[in-house]
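Follow-up to my post from last week.
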Amino acid sequence: MNTLQRILYVEDEPDIQAVAKLALEMVGGFTVKVCSSGEEALREAVAFAPDMILLDVMMPGMDGPTTLKALRELPSLAGLPVAFMTAKVQPAEVAHYKTLGARDVIPKPFDPMTLASQVRSIWEA
Amino acid sequence: MDDKLKAAVAAQLAQLRNDYLARLPAELAALQTLGSGLSGGNSDYASLDELYQRLHKLAGSGGTFGLAALSAGARTLEQRVKGWLAGSLDELDAQARQLFATELAALGETVIEADIPAIVSQASSAGAAPGRSTRVWLVEDDVLLGQELVRQLESFNYVVRLFTRIDDAERAAQTECPDMLIMDVMFEQEGENATEVFALRPNLRALGCPLLFITSTDDFQSRVRAAQLGAQGYFLKPLDIPRLVGRMTQIFEQRRAPAQRVLIVDDDRDLAEHYRLALLAAGMEADVLQQPAAIMEKIAAFRPELVLMDMHMPDFSGPDLAGVIRQHDNWSSLPIVYLSAETDLDRQIEAMDRGADDFLTKPISDAQLVAAVRIRIERARHLDEQISRDSLTGLLKHASIKESAAIEVTRARRNGKPVSLAMLDIDHFKLVNDTYGHAVGDVVISSVAMLLRQRLRQSDIVGRYGGEEFVAVLPECDAGYAHLLMEDIRRRFASLRFSHEGKDFGCTLSVGLACSAAYPDSDGAALLVAADEALYVAKRGGRNQVREASPS
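User reply:
Got it. Predicted complex:
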């Protein structure tokens, strides 16, 4: 796993999905799979075999942290880099998300032109 | 990232933002309905929970599209609702509810004031979004003709700005951009021929919006120059307004057509990925087939409009896979284009014999690939439209809209979501035809079609059911919302003014609605009958109204 190519992106809001997909595919050249809920991500993640996962924090049903915990229980995804995406980023919250096993937190709203490089630098960190 | 890709990304972002802004008023209206429905007490729980979810989404999506004020406002209200949900709902007194409703209503104002100008400049190249008024600039030195044209175009919901001098338009083009530019060819006072001087006006040239010319003299030189300038229409005076409007509508529809979908089948992963990105950058949707054996599943899920197929792959050849596709009736006309290093003409022909439509030779430049794909899909779409669409209105014909209604009702049953059908009929249409003639009647019919297309969502399906009768299929739309939508269209149509030989007149619509939720056992045809019965009730109730069917 030397390069970042496949990204699983979990977000419930269709408009944000569309913008992020555009930003990651066209600007970053990544292969992106979008899931609209934590439940869907759990069903699809193993088959898609992502290099990295981006998770919205607040979703109806399973939220981001719950989804992360469940994903970690799937053997093939246990060590995968995960970043949260959320609007409220207080330093204490970032620290909290990191203790849950996220590598970093991407603040929303994100800039579509730089999202891909942001994701790449988190992956490389 | 090179400039071309950057521009393509920016254009697509602008398009997404446009679509979002077009849907926003409906979302804000729905929030207000929810907010004003609060009554204080535990019965509010479901509404508050929904408000909480929707405000959260709005805060996120608003921020994503740069609507900072909207996002912040929605965030504040989201937090307030969260607090209410956590506490006892009895604390939600009338004053708090009133304040909440007022602030919900104010959310819309943050958008209108702060963000529309920004959209205007960004949206210029992306074309007009449905639900947003379309801005047209008319450059015409004959003031009387200009004003008359403005009035007529405005009755088709275009926002028209009249310039009597080319230089005025040139100056305005520095800071603004319309969705379309219509220019007279001859400017008497300035002694200029617009097709000659257009190239000398850098701001007008840079607009990049569709261009139409109107003229009273039909000379070949001007026509050629107009074509060289990329004009999409050349109309002789006296102007045939329905034809002009027809062309304008056609141009805008093409611009807002959904992205073309291409499936790439190539065992060279890197090359396939390269094609995918080239097509994406051109605004298309592209997907790569990973497992040849899953080709039919992939096609059914992705519904490509064209398959780009490598000739030689290790396990199966291109013609093998093309043959498999052609075994399926519903994909027998899906365009398949081979992409291969094969230069032997005999082998090319042999391959095309087995179900493919065209042959592109590798290596191929990105521009060639995009152009070849785009033209093929456009032709396929055009053909499909000629078969299924009504020539006057561009809406689906009777059989096609009926079929769409049946498909959507079945889909709604499967998803457990409601679909609403609306049947609309122009009141006293025969009188219009008898009084003003069929040409004027056609204008009235076209304007209903235009209103429906402009006011409804892209996912809604509209057809001309009969002479002056229309059907709208509204997926994932409950009866209440369908009623709001149709009421809005009824009101707008009633306010349109038509003219014939100096006389103004107006028309009205009657609408019958039926929602699948109220008729759990009905199929598409039965639901159409219910909508038709509601239409009859609306007619009997005095016309110019919307009625909803309820099972007896």
